[in-house]
Design brief:
The strands form two sheets. An eight-stranded mixed beta barrel has the order 6-7-9-10-11-12-13-14, surrounded by six helices. Strands 2-3-1-4-5 form a five-stranded mixed sheet, with helices on both faces. α9 (about 235-255) runs parallel beside α11 (about 280-290). The chain is an alpha/beta fold. The model has no long low-confidence stretch (mean pLDDT about 90). β13, α16 and β14 (about 405) form a beta-alpha-beta unit. It is elongated and about 80 Å long. The protein is built from 17 helices and 15 strands. The structure holds ligand C2E and magnesium ion (2 copies). The site of one magnesium ion (MG) has 5 residues, from β11.
């Protein structure tokens, strides 16, 4: 049993959130280097389901005891939410790296102990840290620590992150993506660029890839590297992919009506699209209605489509192929999939990733592997394309490996529709 003095002292060191903020601000003045740490316990809900809420409460109390009372550097702490705590710690003159390493070890030893005690529910912690300067508003500091913690994302292991201005810039950028994207969809302002695919042997273009963009509130183009993961995570990527396909189908329809020769245009689809029940029916209805031949539409899927739910994914890809669409496996060599899995994919085309190609063509062993891979894929009737080709020398090595179709800045960058039509679509 704790005696009265201990209870009083404990309350002082672990007050309500409001008191914590008020007292914390004053305490910072007397500290050498004030470090605020936001700590989140992952999986509490699951833990409660397995062990019951009473044990869950004990777990939280253990966490408070460990980080607040057993941690000699902790000056004051509070609970900011049911499974979050905030602690203000003396950081002396340690560097950010030293603080990260110290608290990483400190948190992991709590997790190891807890997971031994409760082996049926694996829990972990995210820790976000920031330095609190003497004149800083405590609410801003709290926000910074939270930003750092949230930057950790979906890691299943215990992890620590430190706040920086760059991190804030990135998370602000990320937060603005969804509203900017929704606005672009509502205003019909999704931009589709086309990059030609070129046959070295035939010396002409044999297809193109549609790549999307939209603008932020200042009118700057947002890169797919930024927006694709955000739209995938929010499960709204299907809106973008449907819109890109709609524009591509419109183009092909117009070219067909003008009597121009059609060639396949590929549209990137995300694995999330395939898991959306009605997506395939919707895109098929769109193409069907336009009257264009289905084999001028190619769907590109990155290798990561094959990571989970393989049976469902293969059956959806088969359904697209059976309807007459072309299928391409994108970014081959950038992930890690076994050739055995690739053999089951009903694809027409395999696109070698720039990184893989560059690495392969710099040494004899790489070249031999690539040459044999190209041969193997051709034998199982895949067309092989190399992406991201920038120089004549790269092209020569690629052609020597037996790959004929090339996409890259050497021929052209992704172009807007007007420029693409002027250069490549014969009347
Ligand atoms: P990806 O499908 O592999 O597209 C090729 C990327 O390589 C494009 O980047 C293209 O601009 C770039 N690239 C082309 N030639 C060269 C070159 O010679 N050198 C180098 N270094 N890069 C080259 P982008 O447009 O930024 O797109 C990045 C990725 O974003 C795409 O990779 C694709 O996975 C995804 N993406 C783009 N648009 C869409 C879309 O509408 N829907 C979906 N689901 N994904 C998209
Ligand atoms: Mg692609
Ligand atoms: Mg690619």
């Amino acid at each position: 049993m704790k005696n009265e003095l201990e209870i009083k002292n404990n309350k002082k060191k672990f007050p309500s959130l409001d008191k914590f903020k008020r007292k914390g601000k004053k305490l910072v003045d007397d500290m050498q280097q004030a470090v605020l740490i936001s700590i989140n316990l992952r999986n509490l809900k699951y833990f409660n389901e397995i062990y019951g809420t009473k044990e869950g409460d004990t777990l939280i109390q253990n966490m408070v005891d460990y980080f607040c009372y057993d941690n000699e550097n902790c000056i004051i702490g509070t609970k900011s939410y049911v499974d979050h705590i905030l602690i203000l710690c003396e950081g002396y003159n340690y560097s950010k790296e030293e603080l990260i390493s110290y608290y990483d070890d400190f948190a992991k030893s709590f997790i190891d102990k807890t997971n031994k005690e409760y082996p049926r529910a694996k829990i972990s912690l995210d820790l976000g840290m920031c330095i609190v300067s003497k004149d800083e508003d405590f609410i801003v500091a709290q926000d910074n620590a939270r930003y750092a913690r949230r930057s950790i994302g979906n890691s299943y292991d215990t992890a620590v992150a430190f706040y920086s201005e760059e991190l804030r810039k990135k998370s602000l950028e990320k937060a603005s993506i969804i509203p900017n994207f929704q606005k672009a969809i509502d205003d019909d302002a999704i931009i589709v660029l086309l990059q030609p695919k070129y046959s070295v042997e035939e010396n002409c273009i044999v297809g193109a890839e549609a790549l999307s963009r939209f603008r932020d509130e200042e009118g700057n183009i947002v890169s797919p590297a930024l927006f694709i993961p955000v739209l995938e995570e929010a499960s709204i990527i299907y809106q973008l992919d449907y819109e890109v396909l709609r524009q591509v189908v419109d183009m092909q329809k117009r070219w067909m009506e003008d009597g121009r020769k059609l060639f396949p245009i590929s549209v990137n689809l995300s694995r999330v699209d395939l898991l959306e029940e009605t997506f395939i029916d919707k895109i098929d209805a769109l193409v069907e209605e336009s009257g264009i031949p289905k084999n001028v539409i190619e769907f590109e899927f990155t290798e990561t489509v094959l990571v989970e739910n393989l049976t469902t994914v293969i059956s959806k890809l088969n359904s697209l192929k059976d309807k007459g669409y072309r299928i391409a496996i994108d970014d081959f060599g950038s992930g890690y999939n076994s050739l055995y899995v690739l053999g089951q994919i009903p694809a027409n085309v395999i696109k070698f990733d720039r990184g893989f190609v560059l690495h392969s063509i710099t040494n004899e062993v790489g070249l031999t592997i690539m040459k044999n891979l190209v041969e193997t894929f051709k034998e199982i009737e895949f067309e092989v394309l190399c992406e991201g080709v920038e120089t004549k020398e790269e092209e020569k090595n690629i052609v020597d490996c037996g790959c004929d179709v090339i996409q890259g800045y050497l021929y052209d960058k992704p172009l807007d529709l007007k420029d693409f039509e002027e250069k490549y679509v014969a009347c």
